[in-house]
Amino acid sequence: MLVHCSDRVRALLLAVLLLTCLVVPALAGPFEDSVAKFANDDFSDTEAAIGEVASSGNPLASTILSALQDGRLSADPDTKKIFVTRSDGKIIDAATGAAVDKLSDNVADVRVNNRLRRAIEAALGGLTLLSSDPAKRLAAAQSVFKSHEENLLPTVESALAKETNKSIKQALAEARAAIILFKSDASDSDKLDAIAVIKARGDQEALALLNDVGTDQPALVTKAASSAISSIQSNLAMWSMVQNAWYGLSLGSVLLLAAIGLAITFGVMGVINMAHGEMVMLGAYTTFVVQEMIRTRYPALFDYSLLIAVPLAFLVAGAIGVVIERTIIRFLYGRPLETLLATWGLSLVLQQAVRTMFGPTNREVGNPSWMSGAFELGQITITYNRLWILCFTLAVFAILLAMLRYTALGLEMRAVTQNRRMAASMGIATSRVDALTFGLGSGIAGIAGVALSQIDNVSPNLGQSYIIDSFMVVVFGGVGNLWGTLVGAFTLGIANKFLEPVAGAVLGKIAILVLIILFIQKRPRGLFALKGRAVEA
Amino acid sequence: MLTQLTHDIATMTRRRALAATAGLVLGLAASSPFSPAQAADDTIKVGVLHSLSGTMAISETTLKDTILFLIDEQNKKGGVLGKKLEAVVVDPASNWPLFAEKARELITKDKVAVVFGCWTSVSRKSVLPVFKELNNILFYPVQYEGEESERNVFYTGAAPNQQAIPAVDYLMKEEKVKRWVLEGTDYVYPRTTNKILEAYLKSKGVAPEDIMINYTPFGFSDWQTEVSKIKTFGSAGKKTAVVSTINGDANVPFYKELGNQGIKATDIPVVAFSVGEEELAGIDTKPLLGHLAAWNYFESIKTPANEKFIKEWQAYTKNPKRVTNDPMEAHYIGFNMWVKAVEKAGSTDPDKVIDALPGIETPNLTGGVAKMLPNHHITKPVFIGEIKGNGQFDVVWKTPGLVAGDAWSKELEGSKDLIGDWVGKKCGNWNTKTNKCGGQGS
Amino acid sequence: MTPHILTRSLDRAATSFILIVAAFGVLIPLSNLLLLPGSVFHVPTYLVALWGKYVCYAILALSIDLIWGYCGILSLGHGAFFALGGYAMGMYLMRQIGSRGVYGNPVLPDFMVFLNWDKLPWYWYGFDKFWFAALMVLLVPGLLAFCFGWLAFRSRVTGVYLSIITQAMTYALLLGFFRNDFGFGGNNGLTDFKDILGFNVQAEGTRCALFLLSCLALVITFVICRAVVTSKLGKVLIAVRDAESRTRFLGYRVESYKLFVFTLSACMAGVAGALYVPQVGIINPSEFAPGNSIEAVIWVAVGGRGTLVGAALGAFVVNYAKTFFTSGALAPYWLFMLGALFILVTLLLPKGIVGTFNSWWEPRRVQRNSCIAADEASAAREDGVGAPKMAE
After folding, report:
1. Chain C residue nearest residue A359, CA to CA
2. Total-model pTM
3. What is the nearest CA distance from A250 to chain C, expressed in angstroms?
4. C200 part of contact set with chain B, CB < 8 Å
5. Helix or strand or coil: residue B204?
6. According to CATH, what is the number of the domain B164-272?
7. CB-based contact, B415 to chain C, within 8 Å
8. What whole-number distance in Å separates Cα of residue C197 and Cα of residue C34?
9. Domain A241-536 CATH class label
10. Which of A68, A76, A194, B290 could form a disulfide linkage to A181, CB 3.0–4.6 angstroms apart?
11. To 10 degrees, what angle do helices C232-242 and C254-280 make?
């Protein structure tokens, strides 16, 4: 009995001991104390916690910090417990790593501000330098380059020694150079080497780093730094010309896309279509509707939303175009200026209709992942959405040209617009062709709306902001000539972007308008004038 | 000539003469909707002067709904002075002369007791002479450039010292910003705000070469060059921030370009004065995480009053996703102040209400008290919010107390000696140096 | 000579139009000033201002009809001339404020003090004098139109090309005037006017006087337009409209005719703008917006292109509809109605209200009055030239 008793006591004691071994450190250890600071909802406490967690050496540190960075770290203000929601949706206790089923209601996200975000980035940079994921290592090296914290030098050097990937190695070398440049006890020759490495990098960030070199550095170093700065600057100035050209191409592609539908309805058919902008807007709203449906029903398809939206926008805008042609425009052929009046009225109606249906505020159209972000080409940044829009515009243009050139409908369209009566007597159903041509122009405007939804507001006013520019492009290029529209759009785009840095956005635009006015004096029928008898008609 | 005329009149067929008379009568009859209609005695009419079409509809439609909602709520409580309130809605269509015309119509024809309306200074400036001439009351709910204090206007939006300066202070202290880009749309509010900020920054020891001021036109959509300019300016080695006074429509493409060119808030934070919950509803905010806005109200602020307001607003609009924003709160405050002033004066007579308004206090939605000051501006707290991934703001800083709105900026040469005081001095531009009413004097 | 032009140019319809406008110009101010507010026939002051605005729009419509209806020049930028005239008047009114501005600066307008300007820009000199401002009201739009037209007509820019570059012109001016550096008050424009020629702009008497003046200007503009279109010059203009090349081959210097009428029309638009500004109390760059110019063209089309009475009537009808629909329960739907009005007028009344009325009325009138004196019939035929496609 006694033995029994003591056995039980011993078992109990053992259990208690075991529990204390497991639990007590978990409650009282320095790491857990640091983590608990996250629950205070005070930015300076959070900052302290970041530093302590980062230097703790605990394997959970990088999990916690990256969760904090992504807004997946939450705290219970009552129990001071901190939880990480992992990217797969599982929840763990940040201090212990133990799985947790469900968060109670008063758990709130740990808040961060920009200062803390920078601290997290710097801390993660140190922690993930040796990560197995190459992308993480690269990001870490880059953030060390920016923060250039002295105490990371050994880590950077050991990472550099182990690294096999060429681009990461390069990034690490630059990070090391950045640290050395600002290390007070580094030798002058080391610093000069560091400047050479940074100079070779040659981008804005290198420039920022070199500009940071203070006057307290040895004269030799500051001199080398300033010569590196001027060499980077002259290099960047050259690249900025390339960049302007790229921006010009990109603006030109947007202008072309907006104008290309008008080049058909206005340029080919002679209808002064003031509702053209609204067709663009309808295309953008189609994109919005498609994305909304995808978001609620098939979120996995989101990246394909634009691909789905393009044909739909074409159909929606095209169908509305056909209806407009059948009910309004067809009564007005031969009275081009009156189409202006009717289509202006129509544009008011369409705008207000959209405003009534979707509300007056902007609608959110998201960028699919393949249209977000940018890549570096030399020293210029090329954003994916602009690049895709340029490709898309050229593709639309090519398809349109091919269609007009090689299909039966295209042939009929050309025939009808060149000589309606002759075409009719050859057995072409001219009124059907008219409707289809107008539908085609409107449909292409709808497609333009899909692309423009990626860079501009999706609001009832969307079309208004493009209509004037579109008319300028078509007239500048020469009415009735698709190639003229292409050349016109890119010329205006590039000229605008080269003027903008010199004259500013407003004066640049005014200068372009004045140039168009003067140019029309020189060539009263645009860049590529139609010749022959059709001209006077 | 004369003989010809008389001859014409004489030969004018009877029918034509009849037609002419008919036309005249018709013209007058058609104008009858404008002849002074007798206001029904059992209601008090409230004018709502917000654009429902045109470029400003995007912002103003919500404010029209807000006033209708507030009137609805007030009527449920029994109205004011025992009478129901009745809204008179007109659409000035984002057209400035039409604003003046509609204001005149509201006051003369509909006999409204007060008007809530306008957005952007030009619309306010356009209606100002009308309100002065016909002596009525306008509540203006949007942040503006200041430099104005009128007897007939009550400014419930922020003056520059209630938005711009605290935001810059925050960036200097918290983010240690040393280099500034002041980016704005080219109109009066950004111009003046930037002028004030420039003077303020220089007084804090910022070198002129560390300030870049840049203007773009309305509705600007191609931000590539501007954003890369900001990037270049930010690479000078000092911490850089952008203070944005970019107007409504141009914001979406601006933020999209920022996100795509990879400018993160941790590198170059952007603090905006015209971007609120409503504007963010049109953008995917994930790339904008951490960019800032300075306002006197955020939907995310947790107070019982705010939660109640949001719940009732969403129920009223039958849209559980409908957001609230700062100008809405300004209307909420302005409306409640007007109700209190009417009750205090015991009448809706504009003169009495104008005299009753200064000194009126009403709780705002963020737990503070808004007080109408003698210069017709109100006290407000200032919050700095960071954009979150869900289109809301996370308040990262707030002023310790309430900030009183300055009608005249202390930073500008032309206005530093001026104050507005409609209680004691009965003057909107009292010069404290010369102790005279009437600006700088000569 | 002068009486001859007048008798020839003023047919019965024109005379009745003048009489109606004159009657309005006198009766409305009288009823406003003399009758008590309670009276059925009392016209409230805000209506005087509103109708005054319409009259200014009617002058603008006349100026557009003169070039579009009779010479085939479709200007989508006529709002620019209107706005320039308005700015010239606005600058005079700004200078009249003197030290009564909020800053109390005796010389500089408020917005300049506001932006720390220390002296008046050179182009503001002289605007403190009414005669100078009045001259500028005619000169600035006229000069711009002359230069623009001289370039455009000489290089034979026609049709849509011309329409689009006029649009480019007004758009460029819009952007320019928005710039605060330009020195015209930027987006806020010019406002808060006090006096005109020493009279308070807000006083009822001044408003009535302005209304009367606007009506007078409308009559004068109308008479000038009639005189032009019924003269030999007018016949050449119509020839240019209907067959420009043929007219040129006949030996007429087409560009000179076009330039004259374009400049004249711009001056008229300038006068309209100058009368408009004191009545609405603000001038702002949005008057330059291309949409405004297009809308003005639409007034003409609604009323009847090529009929001067129609242009004026169109301006009244469309603007009255705008005023009417933007209030009350209809407010959210007014754009539908305005849009539908434009579409329906184009489809159902291609000649506009007056044009359609004329083509319905004319055969009946001729039938009824077949016994009327021969000289009158011949006068009518002469007028018929005014719009061959849409006979009077």
Report:
1. C332
2. 0.86
3. 22
4. no
5. coil
6. 3.40.50.2300
7. yes
8. 23
9. mainly alpha
10. A194
11. 100
